[in-house]
Every structure is written in structure tokens, then in C-alpha cells.
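Case study.
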Amino acid sequence: MSTFRWIATCLAVALGGLVMAEESPMLGEPVDADTLARVDFTILPNGDGLPAGSGTAIRGAAVYQQHCIACHGEEASGGVNDALVGGHGSLATDSPKKTVGSYWPYATTVFDYIRRAMPLQEPGRLSSDEIYAVTAYILHLNGIVEQDAELDAESLPLVKMPNRDGFVWDYSP
Amino acid sequence: MDDDTTEVVAGNGLLDRRLFLRGGLAGGTVLLTAKAGGVEREDWMKAPGAPMDEIGEPSPHESHVKRTSVRSSPGTTGTGVSFTPHEHLDGIITPSRLHFERHHSGVPDIDPGRHRLIIHGLVERPLSFDLNALGRYPTVSGINFLECSGNSGAALAPNPVQAPLSAVHGLVAGSEWGGVPLSILLDEVGVKAEAKWIIADGADSPMMSRSVPLDKAMDDALVALYQNGERLRPSNGYPMRLFLPGWEGNMSVKWLRTIKVTDQPAMTKDETSKYSDLQKDGSAKLFSFPMGVKSVITSPSHGLTLGPAGIYQISGIAWSGAGKIARVEISVDGGSSWADAALDQHVLSKSLTRFRSAWRWNGAKSIIMSRATDEQGSVQPSREQLLTNRSPGFFYHYNGIQAWQVAENGEVTNVYV
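After joint prediction, the assembly is written out as follows.
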């Protein structure tokens, strides 16, 4: 019995049947496809949810210079905020360095992170093309994709991150 | 009470936990012999006091009780933390204004009239709920802790951090959370058979997002609207947040905006990069959701200095993401001997539980600690056990035993034993 039905049952008993046991308020408004598309930010590791658009590391370098370098430093080596490169091969050592390149298992997460949250002071200002491009740039700096590799909804999920197989699920529904 | 009849239950003067409950300390009261005839009034008794007020504020004498270590990542204003000052609190409910914070880019200023919760994905009918609609659903409330998975991470430092308790263990708090069971809303949208996860997004500027197993969402998840009887505060997710009892705090997404039902986790934002546990062999555990059994003595603790030798209360909080606290043991001799603490009346599942003991401190240097066991039989590990084979890159889910050293002068410091 779901929690609601349980409550409803209790109310039904208490109020002499004013609320029926299997009834649900049903107060949600239907949502049209347009609205859904606008609020749905979810991107799955298989690429489901990635928007149209594309970009290469060459273009991404310019996006990075303009929007990211102030906080993440020259070539994403770290500045005021996190380094986005390096740490490769360090995870099993005494000084592990977890970065996008050394630790993150899915390239789609890089796109997801930037689209949701970066640049920190003005999230939402980059176009999809710019996000693909700056994602390509960060992956290129980590030696994961070529400088001229075109990333888009098809190719991004196929990028194999170095630590792709490094995660073990502690919970399986 | 006469010292001779006070029951010592463990080494270095730990007394029977029932000492306070029996009112055994009343023997210290001095009987007045000469009656003064009822003429004395303190200054504040000589004229009417302050009038009623719309909002009750804490006494100005308590203005030192504030969230501590309020800090942000370099160059940001809202990417950071503030800690609950448990060293000054008692009971199992944390005042909402002192509930710790962990934000990833500030607290959004949400217009409750415009805010919607949209549930979609693998469902029969996507639906949008505004605050008025949610207010008409049957709500439930529960008293539960909320703990950031990074709480107590400071206890991993090679040397004990010498700062008030809250700077180490202040990312946990207890509240009464009220709201609509998420299972009702999921029933209404009609979850499809292949669904296994939900992806919850917040309406903050970095759009916090976490994947939550559908079984948890259907079990005890809430769309919380109330905290401690009032509407959520902005720093706790106003006007609505996800609340997942017992699980790492980050998953209880604040300012809840969308829930997408899926057949797999989305590996969102910080889900893999931050909220995963690196192991010694370089692999990482993902989805270690429940918070482990844990306790900490809040009084005496770092920064609270004991007066002269004599009888003191030892008090603290214990909690477990797996259910109720079964027992809390106290040692005042550095772990050589232990005895059970008394648990306050409210021993609730996935909630802070208040424990208390009595100690006759003889004025000598002593190490005091607490060890909790939950109803599943899990026992809080020592710091040493916890760190065995732990990668230095594994920062979260620290639940080791906390030890405090009381010096001869009564000063309390943080120590590793």
C-alpha cells in the first residue's frame, strides 16, 4: 500500500468516508512537449538529451579564453578554481589528483556540467555550439580527443574517457 | 548525592547514566536559614518587561551562537558551506536558522507563485505542480537528520584540527520535515514499468542535479515544503526541496524544479566527479547513498572549558542512515572501558538521537569518546579502522569515533587516539 493510500484510508476512517481510499487529488497540470523540452536538462551517458550543435577544440580554445580562463587558468591548469586537466595515472597513488581528464567516466558529464553551471557568474550564456567546442577543448588538453575532432550529439557519447571503467556501483536498484 | 553511593560504571569516574534522571545531584542545594522577608528584586523585575513581538528572536546574550566557518570557494560568494554550532545546542532539532548550508552557487531568490515542479520522462502523463496544488495533498512529516556526505572530512587531516566541534562535524542537522510523499506524485504521473531512477534538478543557478533510485523515491522520499513547522527557508530549498531520509545530503536537491523518470542514472554534474569514493586501488565506489552510523560528544567538546573537578554531564548526538540508534557507549579513559549512555525519549529512525551520561571528573587529563551502534547492528568504527586501506582521495562518508582530551586546566582539545 502506498503511503498516500494509507493516509487516505486513515482519513476515510476518521472522516467517515469523506476521502475515499483509492482516490488521488490529481491536481497536476498537463505539460506540453514545448515546455518539457525547455526545462529538461537531463543528458544520459548514451547521449540521450544532448542538443543539436557541434564544436571542435580549435573553436573551444577561443571560448575558453573568453569565458573560463579567469577562474580555471592557462590551458585549464587551474587558477582561482579547479584544474580541469592532469592527474592521469595518479588515482591509485598516495596523491591522487581527480580531474575531468583523470577521473570523470563520461564525456557527456562534461557537457552537462558546463551547460548547467558554467561560466559560474553567467550560466546559460553559452550556445550549444560553444559548449560542444569548449568541451572538446578540455578533452583535447587532456589528450582524449584530437584538436579537429568534431563533437556533437552523436560523437560525444562515443568518446571513451580514460577512467570509464573505474567506477563500481555500490547500489543497484 | 553522597559520593560513596554514586555508582561508577567504567574507568576514570564514568557514572551510572541514570544519575541525572534520578535527580541525584540535588544534594548540592544549599538551604537558606535566614528569611529576608521577600524584598529582593533583580533589576529586570522592577518594571514591566518588553512587549509582545511578531517574530521571536534569541536572547541577545546568545548572539555568539551562530553558524561557523562560513566560507566560499575563492572568487565566489555562494559556492561554499556554513556549519551548525552543535557545541552550543541540545536536543535533536536544530533551529532552522542554524541549519548548516552547502550551496554550489548561492541561494536563489525564487518567486513561489511562478515556481513549478514538473515530473516527466518515463511516465504516462507529465504533470506540473504549483505550490497551491501541492498544498492540497495530504502531507506527512518526520523528524530526520540531514548530513552532507562531506561532514567530518576535516577529521581526515593528518593532525587533529583545533577548532570548535562544528568546524569538523557541523554539516549535520536535525529537523522536522513536512511535505508530500513523492510516491503520491509518481503514482499520479504513472511511472512506466521500465523506470528505475529519477533525476532531480534544482532551480539554483548551477542547476544541482542528482540521480536517485526509484525504489527510494517510492519508499520515504518527500517533496518537502516545511521545516520545523514553518515554510522552508530559502537556504534550505524554499519553496520546495527533495528530502531523502538517511541519505547523503546532496541528493536531497534543494529548490526542486524537475524530476525526470529514467531507466538509468544520468551521471550528472558532480555525481561521479565529486560524490564518489576513491579506493586505494584507484577504482571508485559510486552511489554510496546511506550515511553510516555515527556519534559525537557535543559537551564537553573543543572550546568548552570545564571548571573545577566534579560531576559533569556528557552529552551528544548519534544518528544512522540505516534506522534507529540502538545504543551509545561512552568512554572517559581513552577507550579502555565503556558504559552505555542514556538515550533521550525520542529515539527515531534516521534521526539525531540525544545521549547523556554523567562523569565525575577527578581533574586529571582524560580522553572522552562516544561510540554508536544502530538497530542493524552496525558499530561506529574507530578513526584507525576507518583509515585502514582508505585512499587519500576518499573524502566522503567519514563516521569515525571522535575523541576529546580534557586537560588538567579543563581545556578541551581534539585528539586522535
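Observations recorded in class. The domain at 30-166 of chain A is CATH 1.10.760.10 (Cytochrome Bc1 Complex; Chain D, domain 2). Chain A has one domain: 30-166. We will return to this complex in the next lecture.
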